[in-house]
Structure prediction request, 103 residues.
Amino acid sequence: MARLLKWTEDAAEDIVAIAEFISRDSEFYAKAVVQKIIEKINTILEEPEIGRVVPEIESPKLRERFVYSYRLIYEISDDAIWMIAIFSGKQPLESRLDKRLES
Prediction:
């Protein structure tokens, strides 16, 4: 069964912030990184279980993939893949996932 891709507001803001940050130095590399992230998300839609379980949460429905140093955190539901957050692996996971998981 094909799942829909859905974005949380946080994840959508994350990808914009990443592009803006990188574009300060290079518009070219900003576009390239965002393109790589989108390509990885497309592979997630094809095989969502391929991502590793997020170690801080240990839920089989919450997975992650990496693009360069960025963590792409997503949740697998019956009918959708939710992009939860996209952020530097150098940053702590923080409580941004708590808001999404409580709903």
